[in-house]
Write a structure and sequence with these properties.
This protein is mainly beta. It has a single domain, classed as SOS response associated peptidase-like (hypothetical protein yedk fold, Alpha-Beta Complex), CATH 3.90.1680.10. Strands 2, 4, 5, 8, 9, 12, 13, 14 and 15 form a 9-stranded mixed sheet that branches. The protein starts with a strand and ends in a 14-residue tail after the last strand.
Length: 209
């Protein structure tokens, strides 16, 4: 599961890379967390959406609770009810510099970052939809992890090559399913000693909020 990633390039630079129009008003941080805006390529534009489809749960008395952002769509669930409509009709591209996974024991988890060698931006397969809760939202598609990161997590984002972008966004459902597979190439890993919870050095003082 990916619940943290970096996008260090600006909107105009990303739009140029993907050959789409930039929404120059897009606002997103270089580190993207669930429920916060990230940059997405959809409908011929690079624009900001909130990361995570809202999942509305109910309390013990049946009252609706605060929605939870669901940031990852499993490959084996794409044709089930929660994801199916978006997978069939609204696939998108998510530009990513690095994604992170937590590593270590509970309470002492650190951030392990993954990227592709010699690339400033990799492309993750995504889905998007309009929501009443948070406006336009997106999620990453996940599959089995590469052996190079299996000691940290058993899942990873679906990474697309440039020649696969159009097949993912505009191809048939079967075309898109054919791209949902584990990345076969090398990964670059950075196993930091930064705490998962706040990015501060392990053993240091918690960040003041």
């Amino acid at each position: 599961m990916c619940n943290l990633y970096r996008m260090t390039k600006g909107t105009a630079e990303v739009a140029n890379l993907f050959r789409v129009e930039p929404d120059l008003a897009a606002n997103y941080a270089s580190e993207v967390y669930p429920g916060y805006p990230g940059l997405v390529v959809a409908g011929g534009q690079a624009r900001a959406m909130n990361w995570g489809f809202p999942l509305v749960l109910k309390g013990k008395q049946g009252q609706p609770l605060k929605p939870k952002p669901v940031t990852n769509a499993r490959d084996d669930k794409l044709l089930t009810g929660f994801w199916r409509d978006s997978f069939v009709q609204r696939r998108c591209l998510i530009p990513v510099s690095q994604w992170a996974e937590p590593q270590g024991a509970a309470g002492r988890m650190t951030r392990s970052w993954y990227a592709l060698p010699d690339r400033d931006v990799l492309t993750v397969a995504g889905l998007w939809r309009r929501t009443a809760e948070w406006g336009d939202c997106y999620t990453m598609v996940m599959t089995d992890a590469s052996p190079q990161m299996a000691e940290v997590h058993d899942r990873m984002p679906v990474i697309l090559e440039p020649g696969q972008w159009a097949q993912w966004t505009a191809g048939s459902t079967d075309d898109a399913l054919g791209l949902v597979r584990t990345w076969p190439g090398p990964l670059v890993a950075d196993h930091t000693q930064d705490r998962w919870v706040d990015g501060q050095p392990l053993g240091g003082q918690p960040a003041m909020l």
